[in-house]
Amino acid sequence: MRSLATLIVMLCCLVPAQAQDADPSTPSGQEVPRFVSLKFDVANGRSGPSRSHPVAWRYVRAGLPMEVVAETPDWRRVRDPGGELTWMHRSILSGRRTVVTTEDTTLRARADEEASAEAIAEAGVILALERCRTGWCRVEGQGYRGWARADALWGVYANERGDERGGENDGSPALSGSPARDTALR
């Protein structure tokens, strides 16, 4: 009996981290805000959460990072790198993390400004995000991999950039000096 109780306790401790991270307050069970990316080369951002709402923006770049800021069971309110807010159907979004460079960005062999350069990504390049630590992010694009300064990327949060605010997100898009504009209000 004692070994059965021990086994039950051990199994309870091994509950997957994903199940522990689920957010029961959202329809998807995932945290909001969070970053996602576009699955397709052409995707419509609508002014409201249904196909009957007009298209506010047409995106023509698969992999473009988007920030989910609200959701319904089938629709996600997203912020694009330019700061525009639109609604997208969940089927056109991927959980795959990507980032876009906000300036010409050197990909380095290590997370160190003195490390050798592996490549230079021009401003506006979409890169797959592997992980971030201490203000640097491991990224990959067009066959090149390396570490980029997190502050040169849109698609990472303050805690991934190494900002003192930790997990707070100031909500300001890195590619826009103006506040986000809500396309649903037009």
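[next item in queue]
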Amino acid sequence: MPHLTTPPGATAAASTGAGRLGLGVPGYAHPLLAPVEWAELTRPGTPLHWAVLNVAQGPGGRPDPHCSQAAARLRTAGGDSRLLGHLAMRDGTRSFGELVSDAHRFRDWYGVGGFYLADAPAGKAELDAVRRVTETLRSLGDGMRIVLGCGTHPHEGYAETADQLVTFSGAWADYRWSQVAEWTADHPAELFCHLVHGVPRTHLEEAVRIARWQGAGTLWFTDRRGAGDRDPWASMPGYWDEIVSRIGTGVLE
């Protein structure tokens, strides 16, 4: 069993099934290359919290009809807030103007209901700059969902800047021995997301248990591995049906 720091109340939540887990898809390949993957997200009963549209590390240079069709189907299936535009923060090196410009294109071209800020900073020094970006993004429409893709536990102040924080993004070998920051115990599971690649089918149940014990409300597990230029998030996991069934029905024990 992994060495975990368990937030108070996590045991009770896991045993009662309170706070259903859901899926957050960090970015499938282009809909033309991954039509099955995008279609599966609209299957009735899929416990999808959000999926990220990433055309070319952003919205691309012009509207893409294939992305427009995929976006429209996803919105029809579950509402605007399920579709997030990919904004590349590059650890805070992207300018405020570039990010806001990309956000406007995503909103105008694809009708996204929020944004996934990839490679978001996690330090206290960058907090004010990140807050400025997220507050501006929220002003683009009612109910804009903001997910910060820090990939690690950021400074606690980030909990007030977004709807959700990605506090783990990486390989299963690291995840199974990971720990959570103590400050996360003061916040609901809905604030946290874990993205893990290279999870074997035989360890899927264990991975779900870890997410529960660590207080994550959204997850994405895949058996795909990132090696070289390969993107582990580009296609659905080989155990897609199993994870949809497990998460969707709240099977935990």
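[queue empty]
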